[in-house]
Every structure is written in structure tokens, then in C-alpha cells.
Specification:
The chain is of the alpha/beta class and 736 residues long. The protein folds into 4 domains: 330 residues, Transcription Regulator spoIIAA (2-Layer Sandwich); 42 residues; 192 residues, 2-Layer Sandwich (Thymidylate Synthase, Chain A); 132 residues. It contains 20 helices and 23 strands.
């Protein structure tokens, strides 16, 4: 959970007229108001105190250029003192990353000159992270070769859940035009030559001043504020990133952050008429950000506050171009009271578990404060997913398409979908079927993979007795898919035809609006060639799908169906080997109803279908106690009467079958008094469970029983379950 402060365009030191927060139309000799630096200092001081109160120290500080005005030394001198205003929440210097801006360059020096950023480097290379600089850390073309490798440059800052990369876009700021046939030195030498050497001292001084102005005018006409990221920097930085970010972004759970001074696209409708208004090699820079999978881009320069999405794509002459969505944050360079001065970025909001391919972040605007005024900034900002959606629209009538390598990454995107006001058509695609066998991170409730596996096995069971008892056999998928004939096997043998379809409902059911039937209505299998063989994709068609609780279960079911299809297709003419392909869920009604996926109420009920001999084993252990008798019975009854997410777990067919099994072993020969007592206690628990089901009615997370009912029936059922356990202990003790 990294908290990052983003600042930009500080313009410290002697203020320029634009930095005053007042307009002097009278001509006062003294300043009548505050400067931007005054507001910035007060805000950082207040922010430091606030973060101390919240016990949230900064993990990094990012400054995206223009530490000073026009490369003036006093701005660099003030930089360290400015950051100290943050107090104890300021991170170590090695976790502060600073990039140069156009005001940090010496415009009298050409690109690659080791003296061009002398002031800037003296201020930041004493321990801060900074980008690779042309002519100092690497050489390009005629630039001077570097001395001693990367010297003190530290362009990459790695945090537990973020990687921050510094890029210099200011190496060419103040570059002098060289495409000219005029010898400007000769022209200037002849200008006012006589006036500067003859006449009175006053006349010679006036001519000299006039000549100096002309010399400066010519120089400025030939010098440009060129924003450019040197190609050599991208190459050298790429080599370093091969180590810092060796995997694809979809396999990395960290937020990837790029920092540079100049923007990578328009951020406002303001027009700036000047040469080189944007990066000269903008396409190359954007392609670098695309290829390296950066999620966030932090910059400044424009003195405008801006946040928003940008889509990166390789330049191409075709429409079908892969795009990458990145979030752009421009920190303002205009500091005023009540306006955004800087931003806090949290790369793991709410202490969520980071997910590869689907990192999340949040940001908070920090407003400028007045004298002796604190900041009430809160870190409780909404999380923003940085996953790459396939198709995502803010139009509530438009369908959502989510595509990810893993089910975990796809699930994080679905969490962001707003469907509370109206349902949404949703298509979700998972490329790695094996990933569905694990519950996604941040799944609500305290559940595990065993629970998921049992749930899938139960819903895919071909002859589920507990389903029939628990839900009246209305919703189980396995009974409808694998009844004679096996619909999945039939569909698999139809491949590669597009008719490889299995239906879970009949025309009669579909025609009756009052008829209850599964949300999963159809399954289609598709085969596609993929070296060295064939992949089988599975598409599930849902009339309705809960995207928060049921979606992971549904996708795991599709994986189960895929396994069955691969087995059945083994005898077909499809090119071998057969391999698992992608899983696709298509729903016309994506909802978030907060309904807990259910399997037969308790472990006893699940065992009816998943472990048919379970009841007989428990009964035998009661009749002939072993060392593990008490442990086995305790595990069987552990969840009976428990409250889970507001619902009371009450056994149904499971406790009835257990009662029957215990009664059978009691009648095998002359029973002991303790075994007879056990039979009585189990029968009483079965009766109490039936009473609890009647008293609680239909339970759901959407309409849970009242606290009074929940407490009463939970205690009643638990009491009888403990009575059973007392009898088991007595049986075990009697057996010695």
C-alpha cells in the first residue's frame, strides 16, 4: 500500500510576475499579496501534519520538473527546504524521484553538454532518483560520452506495489537552430561596429547595450523550447526495465508509473501558439509507454490540473490496432488557496489484495490552504481499476465486454461495473481456464478453494439428491446437462460444427414466464486451430448472472464443462492434442444481488451427493468407535446451526440420512444404551432442523432472517448438535 505525493512546476526562488496571486494595476513598490510558493509551502506543511494524524507516511514523492524559474540557483537551493515542510511523513531521499523541466535547463548550452543541467543535477543527484541525462549517463550521436556508466542516475524506483520510472523530456530545451547559411557572428560583429568604438563614452555605452540586445534577440530567435525524449534514453531505459519489469503488464500486480515533465497529449482546450508545443517524437514516446505497459503517466508543464484516460496505440494504417489504456495525471503549476495544489496517489486503496493484470489505485486532490489553516484531506477515495477492458462504456445501455488472462483479473474489472440502478449486458472472457479453480482476490466472505470445488461439483452433479431436496431440482445444471443423453458429450462430438450446443431448458419452460429454471440456459462449444493442435472454447449463455458472488462459480462450472468436452472430443477427427481454450460468459442481465452461492445447506447435505458413503461411515464409527470418531463427527456437525453472513446453516436431507444410517447400525445387534441415546439425539436434531427451516423460511442475503429469529434458531439447532456430540463422546469413552 504505497502512498505517493505528486508535485510539479514548483518554480521556486525569485518569483515571476505570473506567480503572484494578485494583479497590480496601481504600481505599488512592494508586493501586496502571496506568491504561488507561499501557498505551496503552507499546503505541504498542513498536508504533513494531516498525514501524521492519519498515520500514513509517504512512500514516495514525485516531482515532474521545473524546480526553479529560468534555471536560477535560488530555486534549487529552496527545493530541499520545501520538501522538509512535510515533516516526519517525508520518505527517504532514495524514494523521492525528480525529473527536469524546461526551466531547469541552461539554454546557453546545447543538448548533450554536461553543463546544461549543472544546477538541476547538483540539487537532485545527492540522493534523489532522477532520469538518465543525455551526455552524462549515455551518449547519442555527437554527444559527449558518459563518464563511469550511469554515474548517480537512479531512474527507477521500485516499491512493493508500484514501479516509478523517471524520463527526461527536457534535454533539448533551449536547442539552437543549426540549419542556416548566414554567419550570424559576422553579421553581429559588423552591427554598430563604428558606434561601439568611436564617439563619447556615453555614446559607446549606448551602442554597446544596443548591440547586446541585438545579439540576445538573434540568439533567442534561433533557440527553441523543444520537448523531446532522446531515442538513446529510451534504449538505455528499456535495458534497465528488462530487469525491473521483466514480465508483461498482465502478469505484474504492481502499478507501473511513468514520470516526465511534458504531456503526452492535450489536457485542455487552451491554445499555446509556439514552436514545438508538444514532444517532437511524441509517437515514439507513446509507443514506449504502450510496449512497457505503463498504467499511470504523471507530468506537468501546462500549469493545468488534469486527470483522465488516454489510449495508446502503435501508428498503423489499419483500423484493427491494439490499444492500451493509461491514466494521465497533470499536476498544476499554479498554486492558489482552495485550488488543487498537488495530488496523493494510493497504489493499493483499501489495502486490497493486488491482482496481476488488474491493479487498482485512487487519487486525492490536495487543495491549497490559507495561513494557519489545516487540511482535512481524506484518503477514502474511490478505487479505479487499471485493468485493460476489452470494451467498456459509461453508457448504461451499452454492453460491457471484459477480457483478461485470468479469472482473478476479469473479476476485478467486474467489481467496478455499476449495475445497481439497472441491469447490464455483460460479456466476460477468461483466457486461462485453470485460473477459475481459485477464488478471486477480494471475493466477499471467508471462503476457500475447497468450498468452491464442492460448490461446482454439486451444481454439476448429474443425479443430485440434495439438490432435489434443497431446491426442488429447479436449478441444478448437471442434472440437465448430463441426463440421458449426455448433452455435453453430444455437443463435443458435433465439433467443429457450429451446432455443438447443449440446452439446459426446454421450449415449454422458456414459453412459461412463471416457470422457474436455471440462469444458465445454454452452452456452446467451439473448436479453433492452435499449434500444435486444437483448442476447445466454452461459451455459457446466462439469462441472468450475479457478477459479484456467482460469476466465479459460473466460470469454474464452465471449466468443469470444458473438461468433460475435452474427454468426449478425444474420439473426434479434431487435430490433436486437444487443449483447453478460453471461457466466455454471456449474460443479458448482469446484476449484483448479493445472493450467496448455495450448495445444500451444510456439510451433511453436501455429503449426500458428493460422498454417498459418508453417513454409513459416521454410523459405523459410532457403533465401533475409533481414535478419530469424535473428530469425524465434530467435522460433520461443525457448521450445523452456525450463522454465516447473516444466514443460519440448517441441515435438511443430510441429517435425515444420518438419522436413518445410525438407526440401521443400532438394529444390527443388541445395541448399547449409549448408541440408543445417540439415535434419539440425532432424531431430535433432525426434528429441530425441520422446525428451524419452517421458522426461518426462505433465507437469502437480500432478505435475511431477523436478528431475533437468527439468534433463536441458531441456538436451538446448535444445542441439539452439541447434545449429539455429547452422546458421541459417551460412546467413544465406553469403548475405551
Amino acid at each position: 500500500m504505497s502512498l505517493i505525493l505528486h508535485l510539479s512546476d514548483l518554480h521556486l526562488g525569485s518569483p515571476s510576475p505570473l506567480q503572484y496571486d494578485y494583479t497590480d494595476k496601481f504600481g505599488l513598490r512592494e508586493a501586496a499579496g502571496d506568491t504561488g510558493t507561499d501557498h505551496l509551502e503552507r499546503t505541504l506543511s498542513a498536508l504533513g501534519k494531516r498525514l501524521t494524524e492519519l498515520a500514513r507516511p509517504l512512500d514516495a514523492v514525485v516531482v515532474s520538473g521545473d524546480l526553479t524559474n529560468a534555471n536560477k540557483p535560488d530555486g534549487y537551493e529552496a527545493f530541499g527546504n520545501l520538501l522538509d515542510l512535510l515533516g516526519d511523513v517525508l520518505p527517504p531521499h532514495v524514494q523521492i524521484i525528480v525529473t527536469p523541466g524546461n526551466h531547469d535547463a541552461d539554454w546557453t548550452r546545447q543538448p548533450g553538454d554536461t553543463r546544461k543541467f549543472k544546477g538541476f543535477l547538483s540539487a537532485v543527484r545527492g540522493g534523489y532518483c532522477s532520469p538518465l541525462m543525455l551526455g552524462i549517463d549515455y551518449a547519442t550521436g555527437s554527444a559527449k560520452a558518459p563518464r563511469g556508466g550511469y554515474r548517480k542516475a537512479k531512474p527507477i524506483l521500485e516499491l512493493p506495489d508500484a514501479v516509478i520510472v523517471a524520463i527526461s523530456s527536457a534535454d533539448y530545451c533551449g536547442v539552437e537552430e543549426r540549419r542556416t547559411k548566414t554567419d550570424w557572428k559576422a553579421v553581429l560583429a559588423s552591427y554598430l561596429a563604428d558606434e561601439r568604438t568611436t564617439g563619447t563614452a556615453v555614446e559607446r555605452e549606448a551602442a554597446e547595450n544596443k548591440w547586446k540586445r541585438a545579439e540576445e534577440d538573434v540568439r533567442r530567435l534561433r533557440v527553441a523550447d523543444m520537448a523531446r525524449v532522446d531515442a538513446g534514453q529510451l534504449v538505455e531505459l528499456g535495458r534497465l526495465l528488462d530487469t525491473a519489469m521483466p514480465t508483461a503488464a498482465e502478469e505484474d500486480e504492481r502499478v507501473r508509473i511513468a514520470v516526465l515533465h511534458h504531456p503526452i497529449g492535450p489536457i485542455s482546450q487552451e491554445e499555446e501558439v509556439k514552436p514545438f508545443e508538444s514532444l517532437t517524437n511524441l509517437a515514439a514516446v507513446r509507443n514506449f509507454l504502450l510496449q512497457r505497459g505503463f498504467h499511470l503517466v504523471l507530468h506537468g508543464h501546462k500549469h493545468n490540473s488534469y486527470v483522465g484516460w488516454d489510449w495508446l496505440a502503435e501508428p498503423a494504417d489499419e483500423v484493427a490496432t491494439a490499444q492500451w489504456r493509461t491514466f494521465v495525471i497533470c499536476s498544476p503549476g499554479r498554486f492558489r488557496r482552495g485550488e488543487t495544489v498537488c495530488r496523493l496517489i494510493d497504489t493499493r486503496p483499501g489495502q486490497e489484495i493486488p491482482v496481476a493484470g488488474a491493479p487498482r489505485f485512487s487519487f486525492v486532490n490536495v487543495k491549497g490552504v490559507g495561513p494557519d489553516q489545516g487540511t482535512g484531506v481524506s484518503l477514502d477515495a474511490p478505487a479505479i481499476s487499471l485493468a485493460q477492458p476489452f470494451v467498456r462504456s459509461d453508457n448504461p445501455a451499452a454492453p460491457w465486454v471484459v477480457r483478461a488472462r485470468t479469472a482473478n483479473a476479469a473479476y476485478q474489472q467486474l467489481r467496478d461495473l455499476q449495475v445497481h440502478e439497472r441491469p447490464r449486458q455483460v460479456i466476460s472472457i477468461v483466457e486461462c481456464p485453470e485460473s477459475t479453480e481459485t477464488l478471486p482476490s477480494n471475493y466477499p466472505g471467508d471462503w476457500d478453494e475447497k468450498w468452491l470445488a464442492n460448490l461446482v461439483e454439486w451444481w454439476q452433479h448429474p443425479r443430485p439428491e440434495a439438490v432435489r431436496a434443497y431446491l426442488g431440482s429447479k436449478y441444478n445444471h448437471g442434472e440437465r446437462l448430463y441426463r440421458d443423453p449426455d448433452a455435453i458429450a453430444t455437443a463435443a462430438r458435433a465439433l467443429p460444427s457450429s451446432k455443438a450446443i447443449a440446452l439446459l431448458i426446454t421450449p415449454q419452460e422458456a414459453a412459461d414466464p412463471n416457470r422457474e429454471y436455471p440462469a444458465l440456459t445454454a452452452v456452446q462449444l467451439q473448436s479453433r486451430s492452435d499449434d500444435p493442435g486444437t483448442r476447445i472454447d466454452v461459451l455459457g449463455i446466462f439469462r441472468k448472472q450475479d457478477l459479484e458472488r456467482w460469476w466465479p462459480v459460473n466460470m469454474a462450472e464452465l471449466k468443469h464443462i470444458q473438461s468433460k468436452a475435452l474427454e468426449a472430443a478425444a474420439d473426434t477427427e479434431l487435430a490433436k492434442p486437444l487443449m483447453a481454450g478460453r471461457l466466455v460468459a454471456i449474460t443479458s442481465n448482469g446484476v449484483k444481488e448479493n445472493v450467496l452461492p448455495q450448495i445444500a445447506g451444510t456439510a451433511l447435505d453436501r455429503a449426500v451427493d458428493l460422498d454417498p458413503g459418508y453417513m454409513q461411515r459416521l454410523a459405523y464409527l459410532a457403533r465401533q468407535p475409533q481414535s478419530d470418531t469424535e473428530e469425524e463427527w465434530r467435522e460433520a456437525l461443525d457448521d450445523v446451526g452456525r450463522v454465516s453472513e447473516g444466514l443460519v446453516l440448517v441441515p435438511s436431507i443430510g441429517i435425515e440420512r444420518l438419522s436413518e444410517a445410525v438407526e440401521i447400525v443400532r438394529t444390527l445387534d443388541k445395541p448399547s444404551a449409549k448408541l440408543t441415546t445417540l439415535c434419539k439425539r440425532v432424531a431430535e436434531l433432525a426434528e429441530q432442523a425441520q422446525a428451524a427451516r419452517d421458522g426461518l423460511g426462505a433465507q437469502s442475503l437480500e432478505s435475511p432472517p431477523s436478528a431475533q429469529k437468527r439468534t433463536y434458531w441458531s441456538k436451538a439447532v446448535r444445542k441439539d448438535a452439541e447434545a449429539v456430540m455429547s452422546s458421541i463422546r459417551a460412546c467413544a469413552k465406553a469403548a475405551g
